[in-house]
């Protein structure tokens, strides 16, 4: 057992505040209700509170630098002095104003007008506003395999770096003034470059900018040292990715250069195994290494073997990506051999930053005590880190009541009949051979469906949701609070459905939807009706900027006690002679957007959801619904960070989708929908889902996706989105017709559908009607062109 006390720390803490104080302050600031100083005061309060939580838990360090008003990568853009020149900031613009301009874009009054990309604006325009016409925000993309989105730095061949912000140093001083022992945190230079995007005419390799970037990192480290910071955590999570050799090779010289300058460096890796980078990570010239022992427990021995004895080994044993209470005995069983092997200093921490979990269980009184006892949010995870370290180095006695409480909770979860339902397990065991295959191949189904549906060529449809108007939101909220009675609520939702159906008929759409007025969220709506899910009052997690999501807690075997959508759908269908699509969320997306149980493989949990969705699909079919859409927008984001993990994931994920979809007759048409991602690299697997029709986001990339569909012959029908619903801009019918013609070059016209990119819930009705009218016109124009050709 280690003789010296084991130090403890966290890699980061959520920023929003337990009551989402930062969100409220940000939104007030953006509306002009509070000034920058008032916003900064809220930020300072939250930082102080979060550092205090770390101290109260007994952690050795308070982590400084993890706070961000919008996103930590955006703070690094300013720290490293590399704001994108397209924003054209004038010297007097305050730092925070520039920051929000990059994060949120700059609006203009003139707007951009309606023209096809490249037509009137010249090559390369692709609808980027012209200088002086405002600027779109920096692109946002997912932080590794999380649901957190960072702002993508834009680098040019001639980008120069400089120390561009005092914010980090001010925060360090702030923490020191509060009496904290500070560990500063930075995103590492290689991860920063890797996550950036190359911009500008001149092609270049952003890795070539490293030589210019390192002196600024050295300068930052020197400043931190001068200010009395002992330790700096430098995050290089890209060590968990498949990297080109040039990137791997850049690590060692880079860290030699940085090692000279400053305080002791703890190199932090997380989210994925180090695999071929394990030795490199252990041997870099830094003072310590943090590894994620939740995602890669199997590597701990190797790390302990390779890490020189004088270095700090920080072991992330408390899951920073999930909300389950840590089993202290399991954590100790993992740590004890490491402590015996690694004679140097051992630290204990969460696996990664706690940014990805909610702040605190305090206030979750609506959860029953049993279930609540199974959980640990960020604040509780700090306590777990301290407890585990204390048990390991003997500062906490084995008869400590906290240990007994943890053990009792773990035991209750393991044995609970709410978690383990024999009937669900039995159903999975009994799954018949072929349950994930349709009865006939697609060409046969296509004929049967054509005979039944009698749709025109290039059928028009939408993705499911229609505008969620203030009236709809108010009604749902009142119903939730119990203010609006069931009958009145039903009546109001039916009226909304009727409104949506009438509008669609008026617009001349071919396949209608009910509009999803009754749904707050596409996962929560189903989770609330399925067994095995629980909902927190305040379990918010930052998604991007001020946006937070509250993922359901998937704690037990999933079962469907009753039909979830049939009544609404049947009612909607009763209003029209046109076919109306039933609308469901797919098993992979439900899994991906929930906090998922960690006591069985994700694949198994996904399969349980798949059977519940399958029952719903079959019930819809039995109720006379001819088309059912099963949305899987999150299928790509579930991909493991390492390529070697892709195939196993895609195999079980696509099988889960097929289980949900394949309970029906040939005459029932199954649609799926995907968005938010680049799909070209998984087209064969998407095809393997065997949906009769896929509608997919494409318009933002000007049908880039279709390049992929051109080289890979997608076998079934497809509706590439012809307009971007994320923008209030209303494209003209010519523009949509142009995209459709482009699509028709690579997809046989007989297989082509016409639809927007995604659901319309965030738009208003006038925008929606105008855009859909143009879309229907575009489809009709193309139909008659096809007929006369
Ligand atoms: N059917 C959903 C909707 O239209 C799909 C949402 C999504 O793809 N994220 O809102
Ligand atoms: Zn979508």
UniProtKB/TrEMBL annotation:
Location of the Cobalamin-independent methionine synthase MetE C-terminal/archaeal domain: 458-780
Involved pathway(s): Amino-acid biosynthesis; L-methionine biosynthesis via de novo pathway; L-methionine from L-homocysteine (MetE route): step 1/1
GO biological process terms, semicolon-separated: methionine biosynthetic process; methylation
Region (Disordered): 429-450
GO molecular function: 5-methyltetrahydropteroyltriglutamate-homocysteine S-methyltransferase activity; zinc ion binding
Listed SUPFAM superfamilies: UROD/MetE-like (SSF51726)
Annotated keywords: Amino-acid biosynthesis, Metal-binding, Methionine biosynthesis, Methyltransferase, Repeat, Transferase, Zinc
Cofactor note: Binds 2 Zn(2+) ions per subunit. Binds 1 zinc ion per subunit.
Entry binding sites for Zn(2+): 673, 675, 697, 758
Substrates-to-products reaction catalysed: 5-methyltetrahydropteroyltri-L-glutamate + L-homocysteine = tetrahydropteroyltri-L-glutamate + L-methionine
Top-level lineage group: Bacteria
Residues involved in 5-methyltetrahydropteroyltri-L-glutamate binding: 20-23, 142, 147, 547-548, 593, 637
All residue ranges annotated as the Cobalamin-independent methionine synthase MetE N-terminal domain in the record: 8-341
Keyword Signal: no
Binding, L-methionine: 463-465, 516, 631
Cofactor(s) required for function per UniProt: Zn(2+)
Enzyme class: transferase
Binding site for Zn(2+) 1: 673, 675, 697, 758
Cited function: Catalyzes the transfer of a methyl group from 5-methyltetrahydrofolate to homocysteine resulting in methionine formation.
Family, as annotated: Belongs to the vitamin-B12 independent methionine synthase family.
Protein name per its UniProtKB record: 5-methyltetrahydropteroyltriglutamate--homocysteine methyltransferase
Lineage: Bacteria, Pseudomonadati, Pseudomonadota, Betaproteobacteria, Burkholderiales
């Amino acid at each position: 057992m280690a003789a010296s006390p084991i130090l403890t720390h966290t890699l980061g803490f959520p920023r929003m505040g337990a009551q989402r104080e930062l969100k409220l302050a940000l939104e007030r600031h953006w509306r002009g209700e509070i000034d920058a100083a008032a916003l900064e005061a809220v930020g300072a309060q939250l930082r102080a509170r979060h550092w205090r939580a770390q101290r109260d838990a007994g952690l050795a360090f308070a982590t400084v630098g993890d706070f961000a008003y919008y996103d930590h990568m955006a703070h690094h853009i300013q720290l490293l002095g590399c704001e994108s020149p397209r924003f054209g900031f004038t010297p007097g613009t305050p730092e925070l104003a520039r920051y929000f301009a990059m994060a949120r874009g700059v609006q203009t009054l003139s707007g951009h007008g309606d023209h096809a990309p490249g037509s009137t604006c010249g090559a390369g325009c692709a609808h980027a506003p012209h200088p002086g016409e405002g600027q779109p925000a920096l692109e946002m993309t997912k932080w590794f395999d999380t649901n957190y989105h960072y702002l993508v730095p834009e680098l040019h061949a001639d980008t120069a770096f400089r120390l561009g912000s005092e914010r980090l140093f001010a925060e360090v001083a702030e923490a020191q003034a509060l009496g904290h022992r500070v560990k500063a945190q930075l995103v590492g230079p290689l991860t920063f470059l890797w996550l950036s995007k190359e911009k500008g005419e001149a092609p270049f390799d952003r890795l070539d900018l490293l030589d210019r970037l390192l002196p600024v990192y050295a300068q930052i480290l020197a400043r931190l040292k001068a200010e009395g910071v002992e330790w700096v955590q430098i995050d290089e999570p890209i060590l968990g990715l498949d990297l080109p050799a040039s990137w791997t090779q850049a690590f060692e010289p880079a860290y030699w250069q940085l090692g000279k300058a400053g305080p002791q460096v703890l190199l932090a890796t997380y989210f994925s195994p180090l695999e071929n980078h394990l030795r490199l990570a252990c041997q870099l010239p830094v003072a310590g290494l943090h590894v994620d022992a939740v995602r890669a427990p199997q590597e701990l021995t190797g790390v302990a073997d390779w890490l020189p004895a004088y270095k700090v080994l920080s072991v992330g044993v408390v899951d920073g990506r999930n909300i389950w209470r840590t089993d202290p005995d399991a954590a100790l069983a993992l740590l004890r051999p490491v402590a015996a092997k690694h004679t140097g200093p051992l630290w204990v921490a969460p696996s990664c930053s706690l940014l990805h979990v909610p702040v605190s269980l305090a206030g979750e009184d609506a959860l029953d005590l049993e279930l609540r006892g199974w959980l640990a949010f960020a604040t509780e995870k700090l306590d777990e880190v301290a407890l585990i370290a204390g048990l390991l180095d003997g500062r906490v006695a084995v008869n400590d009541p906290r240990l007994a409480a943890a053990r009792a909770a773990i035991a209750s979860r393991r044995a609970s009949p709410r978690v383990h339902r024999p009937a669900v397990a039995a159903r999975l065991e009994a799954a018949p051979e072929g349950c994930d295959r349709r009865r006939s191949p697609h060409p046969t189904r296509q004929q049967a469906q054509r005979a039944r549906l009698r749709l025109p060529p290039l059928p028009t449809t939408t993705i499911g949701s229609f505008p969620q108007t203030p009236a709809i939101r108010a009604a749902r909220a009142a119903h939730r609070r119990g203010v609006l009675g069931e009958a009145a609520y039903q009546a109001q939702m039916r009226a909304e459905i009727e409104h949506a159906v009438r509008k669609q008929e008026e617009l001349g759409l071919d396949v209608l939807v009910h509009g999803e007025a009754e749904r707050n969220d596409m996962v929560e709506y189903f989770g609330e009706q399925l067994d095995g899910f629980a909902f927190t009052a305040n379990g918010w997690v930052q998604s991007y900027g001020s946006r937070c999501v509250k993922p359901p807690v998937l704690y037990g075997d999933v079962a469907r006690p009753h039909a979830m959508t049939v009544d609404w759908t049947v009612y909607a269908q009763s209003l029209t002679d046109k076919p109306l699509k039933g609308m469901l969320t797919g098993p992979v997306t439900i899994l991906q957007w929930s906090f998922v149980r960690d006591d069985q493989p994700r694949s198994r949990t996904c399969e349980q959801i798949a059977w519940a969705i399958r029952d719903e699909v079959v019930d819809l079919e039995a109720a006379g619904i001819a088309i059912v859409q099963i949305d899987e927008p999150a299928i790509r984001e579930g991909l493991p960070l390492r390529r070697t993990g892709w195939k196993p994931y895609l195999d079980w994920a696509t099988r889960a989708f097929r289980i949900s979809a394949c309970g029906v007759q040939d005459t029932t048409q199954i649609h799926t929908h995907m968005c938010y991602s680049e799909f070209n690299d998984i087209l064969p697997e998407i095809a393997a889902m065997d949906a009769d029709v896929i509608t997919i986001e494409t318009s933002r990339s000007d049908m880039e996706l279709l390049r992929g569909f051109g080289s890979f012959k997608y076998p079934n029908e497809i509706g590439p989105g012809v307009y971007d619903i994320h923008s209030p801009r209303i494209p003209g019918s010519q523009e949509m017709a142009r995209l459709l013609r482009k699509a028709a070059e690579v997809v046989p016209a007989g297989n082509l559908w016409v639809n927007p990119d995604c659901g319309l819930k965030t738009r208003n009705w006038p925008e929606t009607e105008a855009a859909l009218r143009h879309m229907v016109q575009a489809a009709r124009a193309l139909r008659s062109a096809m007929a006369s050709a």
